[in-house]
Amino acid sequence: MPQPSTSLRPAPLTPEISLYLADPATGLFDSAGGEFRSDQPPPFWAFAWAGGQALARYLLDHPAEVAGRRVHDLATGSGLAAIAAARAGATEVTVSDLDPAAVSAALRNAAANDVVLHASGSKPDVLLAGDVFYSPTVATEMTARLRAARKDTIVLVGDPGRGYFPERLFDRVAEYAVPVPAALEEAETLVTGVWRMR
User: Fold this and answer.
1) Do 131 and 159 meet the contact criterion of CB atoms below 8 Å apart?
2) pTM metric for this prediction
3) Are the beta carbons of 143 and 164 closer than 8 angstroms?
């Protein structure tokens, strides 16, 4: 799948963080001619998804959640939440994603914001997951991973009301009206919660 063209611009809900993002008029599959191809993941990393934006805003506004702690951003995408955690004083921030291009994008975005992210590191004290409940298969896998981690790790999730979000497992700690590209969400804002796993 061809990579979309990106440029460095402020994330809408966290203008203090800039990311290499696709043009707001660009859709997720535009770089593939509008087609989904299973051989390569779509470039999720080229967009500031609502869940990641809400998590990032929450961490910047509530730095005590991550200050002095080791943080891991699961399914990092652009790395926005991870960058916010680093800015909020986390001692170490690691990122992972099924798509190696996302990890590369997160590291590039971190450098653009003068923070350091790592592709591996020690066991986290805080686990972040933004906008990961978008399909039944992914939601089932993510729920299992987050439940396994919650025994000795704080789990914070950003979710804009995706249909597969297991709300019964979480308590909402914040809510934001997040600006999003209409080409991506068919809306200009999404009310997005930040949730702590019980």
Assistant:
1) yes
2) 0.94
3) no
pLDDT tops 80 at residue 41: no
Is the alpha carbon torsion for 107, 194, 148, 92 positive or negative?
A: positive
CA 64 to each of CA 2, 67, 69, 77, 198: distance values in angstroms, whole numbers, following the listed order: 40, 5, 9, 24, 19
- Topology (CATH level 3) of domain 6-197: Rossmann fold (3.40.50)
CB of 176 closer than 8 Å to CB of 192: yes
Residue 127: enclosing H or E segment and its boundaries?
Answer: strand 126-130
| C-beta of residue 159 within 8 angstroms of C-beta of residue 88 | no
Sign of CA dihedral 31, 95, 81, 107: negative
pLDDT of residue 35: 55
For the chain, give every domain's residue range.
Answer: 6-197
User: For residue 177, how many other CB atoms are within 10 A of its CB?
Assistant: 13
Number of Cβ within a 10 Å radius of residue 163: 9
Q: What is the mean pLDDT of residues 27-49?
A: 73
pLDDT value of position 29: 66
